[in-house]
Amino acid sequence: MDFNLTEERRMLQDSLGRFLSDKYDHESRRKVIAAGKPYDAGLFAGLAELGVLGALFAEDQGGFGGLGFDLSVVFEELGRAGVIEPVLPAVLTGSLVAENADLVENIIAGEAVVTLAHSEAAARYDLNYVTTTSSNGVLNGAKVHVLNGAQASYLVVSAREGGDDWDKDGIALFLVRTDATGVTITDHVNNDGTSGATVVLDNVTPDARLTGGFAALELAVARGTLALSAEALGAMESAKALTLDYLKERKQFGIPIGKFQALQHRMADVLIEVEQARSAVINLAGHMEADRDTRERHVSATKNLMGRVGAQVVEEAVQMHGGIGMTDEYALSHFARRITMIDHWLGDVDHHLARFIDLSAGEA
Amino acid sequence: MDLNYTDEQQAFRAEVRDWLAETLPREMSEKVRLGKRLTKQDSESWHAMLNARGWLAPNWPKEYGGAEWDAVQRQIFEDECCRAHAPRIVPFGLSMLAPVLMAFGSEEQCQRFLPRILSGEDWWCQGYSEPGAGSDLAAVKTRAVRDGDNYVVNGQKTWTTLGQHADWIFCLVRTDPDVKKQEGISFLLIDMKTPGVTVRPIVLVDGGAEVNEVFFDDVRVPAENLVGEENKGWTYAKYLLTHERTNIAGVGFSNAALQTVKDVAAKVHAGGKPLAQNPHFAARVAQVEIDLMAMATTNLRVVSAAAKGQAPGAESSMLKVKGTVIRQELTSLLRRAVGPDALPFQADYLEGGDNAEMMGPEHAATSAPGYFNNRKLSIFGGSNEVQRTIITKAIMGL
Ligand SMILES: Cc1cc2nc3c(=O)[nH]c(=O)nc-3n(C[C@H](O)[C@H](O)[C@H](O)COP(=O)(O)OP(=O)(O)OC[C@H]3O[C@@H](n4cnc5c(N)ncnc54)[C@H](O)[C@@H]3O)c2cc1C
């Protein structure tokens, strides 16, 4: 048993943490969002240069990481800084496009964003619901909540070749250029400042049919869930740190509010729960390479816990700040939105609770 | 014990319900139901409709144009308004300042200001909080110095709700810095158009700007705008806070929000079945509904005691805490109910734009901002921590 990071990962963590605290803050992010930009292209290039994207891929793919703990190290730092730049798409699609070496090289270099166009309006959080069709060599359907869809150069699209709407069998994955004929992408901003899109596919000819099916998709989403959970953890650490500072600094009735036991005990609970969240992320990262059933059980356990703890941390942090905690100008607002919205990506508390029960009974 | 409303109370409920059905414009109630932000004009026109019916000021005596309802009638009225998704009446003039003027203001002040509150000519806002004076309200520093027939005011208020629309602000100001902090505060009425008053909006976590900072830079305020006696403002402020806490339980709001959650859960599907049939979600909704049923009765117990003339004391703190916990839980249920459709931020839609381009279903559009915005419920009007302290001290003697 060893809970220390390897030397390489620790160095990546340090350099990434330093880079972000030098180059990135709430004010710069607010400016980007206010200017209607999806993210800061310069910052994204800087992250790529630092090797952040390379860390998400295995050596035989041209990267230098790719394992669970590589993802968790990177995303915890991104979460701590509140980064909205499109790193997550690389996790969601990286393992699916691995066979396409040139594309992976472009992803690692930060030159191509390849994102996952999978969710459909009626799917809610169920991965197996796909009604987009693939027949006679063309794709037809509509995808929603496509992260950075409007900034991507390629989409990995799930489409049905057989079976009914809810069957796991019959789902295939396709590489589609975003500028291909018949692709319509509508951009929008999310509550947490990230960019989403709806994608309509009208007789679209894909670039390639990828080798993986549902099982590959499930693994990609498991990796995405780990990344999101680690990001939520980083964001919670920041929310916790801001709150702790505020409890020491803010005075009412002539003393720091942190002297009030009513707040002290709740802050102690926040610390306890954030440590629980850290352990849950470690559990998932450590089982990312395990067999499917073990891995997926951890996916649901971790995502459920992150959603619960996330809500508690957000609500307590805002409450203990009073009015200041509700202002957009103050960094807590971003972490509050991001942590909360992470509960709405790739399955929320209830979804994963039910799924955990099913998986534990060998039924999912 | 009798849990039934009297015949008169039931007839009153029917009368209110019928009137709302006839009068409340549909586009207005839809905005409220869907959680969109109301414009100044929306508030003003609803204010005018209520005024025309004589129902604008439930707690005012008849001599000033009020309805003079008892606490149970007021509760019934609130419930019906919420059920019909009527806009919230902006409370600052009607239910905060007016009772203070009636109790402590001069006859001239009552004659001058009360009719203009009713007519909607004056929009009031509440200038209590300051950057350094939140829970510790008596720490206000905004200074008012007497100079002939005027006070000269310097300082800053913050969190001023809807101050951007206001014509007037009632303020707690420091008139004596050398005594115990509660004993040097005065209650001053300030015309927002006076030179030296600046309003700066504060954008909140949900992207809206309902609160403001208000700055005072050598603002000259006629001394006749002082309410009651100089340095007695803290007494008036506390009196006002007890009025701020009427309908603090928000049972009507919670009932309406619960209905919305149920409607959405019936519409939305999870795993191919209506979410309402999902056992996890159904359990969550049922749990809140059970709490709400009990809280509605707790509220009526307090309300009917108040109707018999007992002032609601520390019990209102109990209603504030439980009421806001339930309302907040309902906002988190709504965001959970809509699932991934809670993700998009739809600024134009929130601001009431009808032809704003929608991302996903209409019922989802305001769920996340609503969740974020309603964190305020446990912060303002005396935070829930402060209320718990009142409960332990005033009810339990700890
Ligand atoms: C949306 C919104 C609208 C508002 N509208 C108005 C308005 O129109 N006019 C107006 O005057 N004000 C308004 N307020 C201000 C509101 O009344 C204050 O936010 C509130 O009094 C809390 O003060 P604070 O924000 O300074 O927090 P603080 O008082 O600094 O409190 C920070 C935290 O410490 C806790 N705390 C403080 N003291 C104690 C204690 N003794 N024991 C235990 N815990 C304690 C608080 O509960 C809170 O959790 C509004 C606030 C908001 C958020």
Automatic annotation (TrEMBL), chain A:
The keyword S-adenosyl-L-methionine does not apply. Residues 116-200 form the Acyl-CoA oxidase/dehydrogenase middle domain. Residues 6-84 form the Acyl-CoA dehydrogenase/oxidase N-terminal domain. Residues 213-348 form the Acyl-CoA dehydrogenase/oxidase C-terminal domain. Gene3D superfamilies: Acyl-CoA dehydrogenase/oxidase, N-terminal domain, Butyryl-CoA Dehydrogenase, subunit A, domain 2, Butyryl-CoA Dehydrogenase, subunit A, domain 3. Signal peptide: none annotated. InterPro entries: Acyl-CoA_Oxase/DH_mid-dom, Acyl-CoA_Oxase/DH_mid-dom_sf, AcylCo_DH-like_C, AcylCo_DH/oxidase_C, AcylCoA_DH/ox_N, AcylCoA_DH/ox_N_sf, AcylCoA_DH/oxidase_NM_dom_sf. Belongs to the acyl-CoA dehydrogenase family. This is Acyl-CoA dehydrogenase.
UniProtKB/TrEMBL annotation, chain B:
Residues 231-395 form the Acyl-CoA dehydrogenase/oxidase C-terminal domain. The keyword Oxidoreductase applies. Its cofactor is FAD. The keyword Cell division does not apply. GO terms for molecular function: flavin adenine dinucleotide binding; oxidoreductase activity, acting on the CH-CH group of donors. InterPro entries: Acyl-CoA_Oxase/DH_mid-dom, Acyl-CoA_Oxase/DH_mid-dom_sf, AcylCo_DH-like_C, AcylCo_DH/oxidase_C, AcylCoA_DH/ox_N, AcylCoA_DH/ox_N_sf, AcylCoA_DH/oxidase_NM_dom_sf, Mycobact_Acyl-CoA_DH. It holds the Pfam family Acyl-CoA_dh_M. Residues 125-219 form the Acyl-CoA oxidase/dehydrogenase middle domain. SUPFAM superfamilies: Acyl-CoA dehydrogenase C-terminal domain-like (SSF47203), Acyl-CoA dehydrogenase NM domain-like (SSF56645). Residues 6-121 form the Acyl-CoA dehydrogenase/oxidase N-terminal domain. This is Acyl-CoA dehydrogenase. It comes from Shimia gijangensis.
